[in-house]
Amino acid sequence: MNIAPGKNAVSNIPFDQARVDRLMEEAGIDVLLATSKHNTQYLLGGYKFIFFAAMDAIGHSRYLPIVVYEKGGPEHAAYIGNRMEGGEHQNNPFWTPTLHAACWGTLDAANLAVEHLQKIGKAGARIGIEPGFLPSDAYTLIRKALPEAKLIDATDMLERMRAIKTDAELEKLRTASELITDSMLATIAWAREGTTKAQMIEQIRREETNRGAHFEYCLLTLGSSHNRAASPQAWKKGEVLSIDSGGNYHGYIGDLCRMGILGEPDAELEDLLAEVETVQQAAFSKVKAGTLGGDMISHAEGVLKKSKVAPYTDFFAHGMGLITHEAPFLMTNHPVAYEGTYADKPLEKNMVLSVETTMLHPTRGFIKLEDTLAVTETGYVMFGDRGRGWNRGGTL
């Protein structure tokens, strides 16, 4: 939401200012110092500096982008970035009234943030920081330079900020999911008898890159093995393949899993994948704005518990967006270490969920479906909703 034009007004704020201000007020934060790539990208309207897209280290230090945002004071906002980002600003100006494209490391970035806070009269304010994304040397500098300030962990507030996606974000997530799905299906069709896991992983990297996605990972199994790491293991006739790949489109994550078979699936394989699908559909049936997140989880787990495959099958669901596990957090430490703080809260329109059921069958191998859903008022919409059955290998 943009504030009305006027004296010191900023008219091109790329996020819902009223909502962010409300979340900051609830968290007791006067001014934000966002330092993670995902939160600086969000607060800058999708911008991420390409030079440090793959790594942060440079010289003796590292890249540390900082967005300074004062609650109710967008005219005091600042972006502190690398010296090369001045060219980015010339071509596509940042919305923040102040830009310091002047840094090569953590300390010069932190020092400029301190100077800006002092300039806008917030040296003694309640300052929201990201402890997991603020290097110790930068934290120490800020702590010593602003002894009157109260440094507050803003992680939860920032996660809540990103939990409800805009239409533009949903479109990027849809595109990311479609590109990953297309790439997985193309890789399954391309692979044939004798193709190794390492070769398949390299192929999906090419498929995703050629489609305009940024490849991040591929976890892949063949045959009865549950090992998802790259190896020289080769695909054999009659064996199953599970391919779980993650990549992003303009920073937004696509993360899905599909199954392949070299030949035709037998009756047992058809039955096993149907059991996985039954659990997935049970979860889907409870996805709607207003439903408690925990109710969706418990319903799917209840269906799984009654299944004959329950002893070696697991159900999991999590939020996703700019990162693979973000709000809503629906399950506690399962398997990623965080609290399921959204289990007793209603799902909201435009939240995005990853829903996955994973079977580690003792003889038939790793059988899994992972799907991406956006919550709507009346239910959900799926992204990348193709290839959810047995996909035949070697057809190209």
TrEMBL record:
<dbReference type="InterPro" id="IPR036005">
    <property type="entry name" value="Creatinase/aminopeptidase-like"/>
</dbReference>
<keyword id="KW-0031">Aminopeptidase</keyword>
<dbReference type="GO" id="GO:0004177">
    <property type="term" value="F:aminopeptidase activity"/>
</dbReference>
<dbReference type="InterPro" id="IPR050659">
    <property type="entry name" value="Peptidase_M24B"/>
</dbReference>
<dbReference type="InterPro" id="IPR000587">
    <property type="entry name" value="Creatinase_N"/>
</dbReference>
<dbReference type="Pfam" id="PF01321">
    <property type="entry name" value="Creatinase_N"/>
</dbReference>
<keyword id="KW-0645">Protease</keyword>
<dbReference type="InterPro" id="IPR000994">
    <property type="entry name" value="Pept_M24"/>
</dbReference>
<keyword id="KW-0378">Hydrolase</keyword>
<dbReference type="InterPro" id="IPR029149">
    <property type="entry name" value="Creatin/AminoP/Spt16_N"/>
</dbReference>
<dbReference type="Pfam" id="PF00557">
    <property type="entry name" value="Peptidase_M24"/>
</dbReference>
<protein>
    <submittedName>
        <fullName>Aminopeptidase P family protein</fullName>
    </submittedName>
</protein>
